[in-house]
């Protein structure tokens, strides 16, 4: 591989910086929201409502959101979305300061943040291949850095900071996340604008949305890449719904300890993101994805059976490593093989299949915990993950992956970056 191909353009550094700052705020809110909800109620189904609300936008608007992103300027979509989320959290922080928080309000905030995530994540996933020229090696490297920053900040640094800030007042962690979104919006606004795909004449928004969904559902590899996180989200959301309660009641962990438990999981995720490319090269992307899925299922089984916080932390670290590697390899593969004019729709359709399963997981987790005990959702989640691994293994095999990459690569080699590359003109690389 040549040194030119290995270089990331300077614009990527600004995108990485924006995500790093925003992810720190996300981690703060990730720890604060369930703890805020837990301070208002100990009813598992009420906690499930807050968890499920954040994923409902993908169910309601997932495919249409992708079609809109394919019509809009992707950079503009990202910075406007972040600015809007900053305003939302600032208003929520004011409500917390005046003692106006409630479960319905937290659910509404989670829903609106999820809607923002739909537009931002779809636009960012569609923007990155243009920035990096759709070259698989660069996409894996770029996604590894973005995923590593997201994991380190949202999982490693953010949760304990969120728990600590919550001790200062209910409004403080929400305000911190609002500031992070505002800074991210400013950084994203400075990125080069991506060229919009040429509009398809006389096609309605609904027809364009259906074309994206059909592209995923009729391609066995893309369908396998979408089904794996769909089943995974049922399992992981069931676990997330009761994790704070499980940590408190079964492991004897307090507020700050819960933040540390999430940090341990994120540490594993950071390691997994770092070794994802290595696993893909040694095992092949398809086999690596199957192995990481199996590791996730076994790790959740270990969490369910954990007799103390130390074993639980180890299980979460291993699970995080599997998830971290998966979330580098799978998006990089999708970005390398999907045509640019369909990228927003395919991304959102794939995410919709995955995210629509999450509300079901939230209610499954809450219902099983209420009917049986807080460990039952964890055992059920482990079984789902292992069954999913077996079902989708052939759909994402090395043979299918290699055939898709060959079909997507032009005869004269990988595409070049869409934007001017200041690195090659002598400017310093930021990342």
UniProtKB/TrEMBL annotation:
Location of region: Disordered: 408-431
Q: Which GO terms describe its molecular function?
A: transmembrane transporter activity
On whether Signal is a keyword of this UniProt record, the answer is no
Q: What is the lineage of its organism?
A: Bacteria, Bacillati, Actinomycetota, Actinomycetes, Micromonosporales
Q: Major facilitator superfamily (MFS) profile domain location, by residue? A: 1-400
Q: What is this protein called?
A: MFS transporter
Cellular component, GO, one term: plasma membrane
Matches recorded under CDD domains: MFS_MefA_like
Organism encoding this protein: Paractinoplanes ferrugineus
Q: Which UniProt keywords apply?
A: Cell membrane, Membrane, Transmembrane, Transmembrane helix, Transport
Q: Indicate the transmembrane segments per the record.
A: 45-67, 87-120, 164-188, 230-247, 253-279, 286-304, 310-331, 352-372, 378-396
Q: Where is the composition biased (Basic and acidic residues)?
A: 422-431
């Amino acid at each position: 591989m040549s040194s030119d191909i290995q270089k990331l353009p300077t614009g990527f550094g600004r995108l990485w910086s924006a995500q790093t700052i925003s992810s720190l705020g996300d981690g703060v809110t990730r720890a604060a929201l369930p703890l805020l909800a837990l301070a208002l109620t100990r009813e598992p189904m009420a906690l499930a409502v807050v968890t499920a609300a954040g994923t409902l936008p993908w169910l309601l608007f997932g495919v249409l959101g992708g079609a809109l992103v394919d019509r809009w300027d992707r950079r503009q979509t990202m910075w406007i979305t972040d600015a809007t989320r900053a305003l939302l959290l600032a208003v929520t922080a004011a409500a917390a300061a005046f003692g106006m928080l409630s479960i319905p309000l937290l659910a509404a905030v989670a829903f609106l943040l999820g809607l923002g995530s739909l537009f931002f994540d779809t636009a960012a996933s569609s923007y990155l291949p243009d920035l990096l020229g759709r070259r698989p090696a660069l996409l894996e490297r770029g996604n590894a850095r973005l995923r590593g920053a997201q994991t380190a900040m949202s999982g490693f640094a953010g949760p304990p900071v969120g728990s600590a800030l919550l001790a200062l007042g209910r409004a403080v962690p929400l305000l911190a996340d609002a500031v992070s979104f505002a800074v991210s919006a400013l950084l994203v606004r400075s990125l080069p604008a991506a060229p919009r795909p040429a509009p398809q004449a006389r096609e309605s928004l609904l027809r364009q949305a259906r074309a994206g969904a059909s592209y995923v559902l009729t391609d066995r590899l893309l369908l396998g890449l979408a089904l794996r996180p769909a089943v995974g989200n049922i399992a992981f959301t069931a676990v997330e719904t009761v994790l704070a309660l499980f940590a408190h009641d079964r492991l004897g962990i307090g507020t700050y300890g819960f933040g540390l438990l999430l940090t341990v999981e994120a540490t594993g995720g950071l390691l997994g993101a770092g070794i994802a490319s290595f696993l893909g090269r040694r095992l092949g992307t398809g086999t690596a994805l199957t192995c990481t899925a199996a590791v996730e299922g076994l790790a959740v089984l270990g969490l369910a059976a954990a007799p103390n916080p130390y074993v639980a932390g180890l299980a979460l670290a291993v699970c995080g490593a599997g998830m971290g590697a998966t979330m580098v390899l799978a998006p990089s593969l999708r970005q390398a093989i999907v045509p640019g004019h369909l990228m927003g729709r395919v991304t959102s359709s794939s995410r919709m299949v995955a995210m629509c399963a999450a509300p079901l997981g939230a209610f499954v987790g809450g219902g099983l915990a209420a009917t049986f005990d807080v460990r039952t959702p964890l055992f059920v989640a482990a079984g789902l993950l292992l069954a999913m691994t077996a079902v989708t293994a052939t759909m994402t095999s090395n043979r299918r992956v290699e055939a898709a990459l060959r079909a997507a690569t032009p005869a004269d080699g990988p595409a070049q970056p869409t934007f001017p590359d200041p690195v090659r003109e002598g400017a310093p690389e930021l990342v």
